[in-house]
Amino acid sequence: MGLLEEFNDYRAKMNERILAEDNKVIKRFFNLDTNAYAAGALDIKTKEMIGLACSMVMRCDDCVKYHLGSCFESGVTRKEVFEVFSIAVLIGGSIVIPHLRRAVEYWETLENQ
User: Fold this and answer.
1) Where are the alpha helices (DSSP H) in the chain?
2) Could you tell me which of 39, 90, 44, 92 has the C-alpha nearest to residue 69?
3) CA of residue 101 relative to chain centroid, distance
4) Computed from CA positions of residues 56, 52, 17, 113, in that sequence, does the dihedral angle turn out positive or negative?
5) Are 52 and 84 a contacting pair, CB within 8 Å?
6) Tell me: the pLDDT tens digits for 1-45?
7) Which of 45, 100, 107 is nearest to 76 (CA)?
């Protein structure tokens, strides 16, 4: 199983198990996240790029992968994603560089699928 499939399959499986517990707070939080990334005054592509930059600064590799996938699906170009990476490194500092390496690997996997 490849990098993309492994991440997406695990995420889907675990989200299903979590939501099956029918915890109101968790369900509402998941819904809030879904609604935050819906089109509004900002389009989905822009929101996903913001989410990617924030995820890199927060150093959450799962979040980075999720937002990279969403960025790719939203039509973000390689040049655009590298500008997002540059902002994340600028804001987050050198500690973001290991996450940048993994992000580039994941982005290239998306491009080559």
Assistant:
1) 3-20, 24-36, 44-58, 61-73, 78-92, 97-111
2) 44
3) 15
4) negative
5) yes
6) 799 999 999 999 999 999 999 999 999 999 999 999 999 999 999
7) 45
| Residues in CB range of 38: below 8 A, 6 or more apart | 44
Look at residue 51 and give its three-state secondary structure: helix
Structure tokens at 113: 């699928």
**Position 82: which residue type?**
F
The count of other CB atoms within 10 Å of the CB of residue 47 is: 20
The 3 state secondary structure assigned to 55-69 is HHHHCCHHHHHHHHH
- Model pTM? 0.93
Tokens of 104: 């580039």
Let me know how long the chain is.
Answer: 113
To the nearest 10°, the Cα dihedral for 38, 77, 100, 43? Answer: -20
pLDDT for 48-94, tens place per residue?
A: 999 999 999 999 999 999 999 999 999 999 999 999 999 999 999 99
